[in-house]
Structure formats: C-alpha cells, structure tokens
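Practice problem: Imidazole glycerol phosphate synthase subunit HisF
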Amino acid sequence: MLTKRIIPCLDIKDGRTVKGVNFVNIRDAGDPVELGATYARQGADELVFLDISATNEERKTFASLVKDIARHINIPFTVGGGISSVADVAPLLEAGADKVSINSAAVRNPQLIDELSRAFGAQCIVLAIDARKIDNQWTVHTHGGKKPTDKKLFSWAKEGQERGAGEILFTSMDHDGTKHGFAIDPLSKLNALLQIPVIASGGAGNKEHFIDAFVLGKADAALAASIFHFGEVKIPELKSFLDEKNIVIRP
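Answer key — structure tokens:
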C-alpha cells in the first residue's frame, strides 16, 4: 500500500478560516496563519488553502495571505481560488505555494488544465471537483458549489487526467460538513478509473472515517477541516490510530 496522506484544509473568506455544512451556514474557524502553523507542527502531510469567495467575487487569491502562511509551514502547500490563467499561478508559487487547485475556471475552459500542466508540470496541478448526486448522477458544481453544470464527476475527472492534472480533489457536497463519513462509493470508482492520486474530501467526522476512505474508497489522501479546526480529532492521534490499523502513513 502506498503511503497515505492527511491534509487539513483552510477554507478562507475575508481573510479568516471558515467552515460550513453542505457548502452553506458558514462560521468562523480561526486565524489561517495560526492554524496552518499548528497543523505543520502536528505532522500534517500537506496543507490546502482555498479562497472560497474569490471566484464569486471575481478576484484573484490573496497572495499576501498565502505568503504569510507559507512562512510558518514546512509541508507541501496547495492554493486555490480565482485561478483562471497561467499568469495567475506564478505569483502564488512565488508566495510559497507548491501546487495550485483549479475548479470553476477549468470547467468553463478545460483547455486551462492543459496550459497550466505544460507551464508548471502535472505535479503542480490539482483539479478540484465539487459534486452532488442529482437524479442518481454525481453532478459537478462550480462557484463554491452554487452553480450546477452539465459535467458529471467521472467523465470530468477522466478528462482532467487526460489534460494533465496531477491529482483530483473530490469533494462530495452531500457529505461536506456532515461528519457522517466520506462518499465511499464514488471514491472507489474514481480510484478504479484513474491513474493519478485522488484526495477524498467532505464528511470526515471521526478517525474511523479515514480508514473507510483509505481502505474502502482507495483514496490516496484524505482532507478534512472542521474536525481539525475545532479540536475534535488531533492529527498526531489520528496518525497513531491509522498506524495501529496498518494504514501506511508518513511519520
């Protein structure tokens, strides 16, 4: 079994970390710089920063905040929100990001995946997919989950891989913030379909849910937010638990 990764996520709005349920009912979760530094100290494998209002507000991600967080961490750092061109990426990498996450702009212009992959390498490009089940099909949504599209999860993920994405970050909108567990069935289907890593997101509520994501869902990494932000699950304890269950994780 390949090494699995634990990834805290900082959803950023107005310079603060926030968290909601099913992409609504947003509440404050703390200072992103402090949280990022804490997670790095605790042994998180990577950190994800998503500026969740950048697309809806038609602006770019706050590079200054990215720089502040990057100065306090020593783990791989993925940044997303409002990225719509090759020119948007360089300032974020210069500010300290290791990878960028694209979502709405890629749905609008799939060629963007090809362009970014050619310019920066596939290992730098994470295709984030927010989807919920509608009429028994996983339908892709954009603009922070506000706009349904005609794209479907599995075909869009496959196209993203073919265009040069290095990872897929799949968030189940139906599971987001519920703490009832990850969306295991679509996770396992994605991992059977793709050759690139898949990150599970949406629904983590306890340590056992991570085992389900890794063993049943075959996810390469599991991302969570509120259970880490509010101290319900601590990363060192989670890693010890997974190690006891013979899940291969990074020290």
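Discussion: Residues 32-42 form the longest helix (11 residues). Students who identified this feature from the tokens alone can consider the problem solved.
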